[in-house]
Write a structure and sequence with these properties.
Number of strands: 11
Helix content: 25-40%
CATH architecture: Alpha-Beta Complex
Keywords: Hydrolase, Magnesium, Metal-binding
Cofactor: Mg(2+)
Largest sheet: 5 strands, mixed
GO molecular function: GDP-mannose hydrolase activity; metal ion binding
Domain Nudix hydrolase: 142-309
Protein name: Nudix hydrolase domain-containing protein
């Protein structure tokens, strides 16, 4: 993984060691406190970033066993394709007197079945490889890339959802709106081996656009606000939950609506069934709920606070 990073306020950076204390339920894999726009975020989508099957046959067979058992209990489960997170690289370019940072996500392809069978496997830690190289450490896990949005209301309150008891992960917990960038939304169902280089570049551009389109879509569907009320998303970093090594890209955006107006929109949200209630909170109020947030979303909150500090310094 390439990490040619300049440690300047607002520049992409590997977060300080104290933020990756093993006692904290998340890791900040990458932080860009002043946010990156779509023109600064790229994707390298390739089969070399796909999951590598585990050499232990019994452990590998447990993927199907766990999925089959879960489908029997929840017949509505759908084995959709997901983008697999395999790392990132950073390139800093000089343009006049400005240093412009470009970030490239390394993405492969996985699916929900494999996520359930590896990351959510009771034996998930056995899929990890002892290595300081992150791409090797998680090479046997599905690691689908999730996303989350830190949304500020017009009063600068934060939009938080309480998850339904019917969801697969962390029912009843407090989260930011989010989900996943979807391969099918980008027209991808498999790797196109042997594709000409120009087509590969076009695919990468489509996926990088989906990274930003998907987070707007998730916010609109989960809290019901019109897309026109949202500012352009700014990518602020990558958080990973220590439990199950679950990665998520986080974005920041402003909503022009008030907390009261957002509550009214939420009552007709398309995906309102995924949550039981919407809250708008101050930073201090959300701090008090930290122990009731999944690790990856708590990491998203940490990325937001780094953004606030960087804006103050700037």
């Amino acid at each position: 993984m390439t990490r040619s990073v300049e440690h300047m306020a607002g520049m992409p950076q590997v977060p300080p060691a104290e933020l990756n204390d093993p006692s904290i339920p998340y890791e900040l894999l990458f932080s860009c406190p002043l946010g990156l726009s779509p023109s600064q975020v790229f994707v390298d989508f390739d089969g070399s970033y796909d999951r590598i099957p585990h050499p232990d046959i019994d452990l590998e067979n447990s993927v199907s066993e766990i999925w089959d058992a879960r489908v029997q209990k929840h017949t509505s489960l759908y084995n959709g394709k997901k983008f697999r997170y395999a790392g990132y690289s950073v390139q800093n370019e000089i343009s006049g007197t400005r240093c412009i940072s470009l970030v490239t996500f390394h993405l492969g392809l996985t699916d929900y079945r494999t996520f359930v069978g590896t990351n959510l496997n009771p034996l998930w830690e056995m899929y990890l490889v002892p290595s300081e190289d992150d791409s090797i450490h998680c090479q046997h896990t599905s690691s689908p890339l999730g996303n989350g949005a830190v949304v500020e209301t017009s009063e600068k309150r934060l939009v938080i959802l309480r998850r339904s008891n019917n969801v697969g992960e962390f029912p009843g917990h407090f989260v930011f709106p989010g989900g996943h960038p979807e391969p099918e939304e980008a027209g991808i169902t498999s790797h196109q081996n042997g594709e000409p280089l120009k087509n590969s570049g076009s695919i990468n551009m489509t996926i990088s656009k989906e990274m930003f389109d998907s987070i707007i879509r998730e916010v609109v569907e989960e809290i019901g606000v019109p897309a026109s009320s949202l500012s352009n998303p700014q990518f602020i970093g990558i958080s990973r939950r220590r439990l199950n090594v679950r990665p998520a890209a986080f974005f920041f955006m402003k909503c022009s609506l008030s907390a009261e107006e957002i509550q009214k929109c939420y009552s007709t949200a398309q995906d309102g069934f995924e949550s039981t209630q919407l809250y708008t909170m101050t930073l201090i109020e959300l701090e008090k709920l930290a122990d009731k947030m999944p690790g990856c979303h708590l990491g998203g909150f940490a990325l937001y606070k780094l953004m606030l500090e960087a804006c103050k310094d700037a």
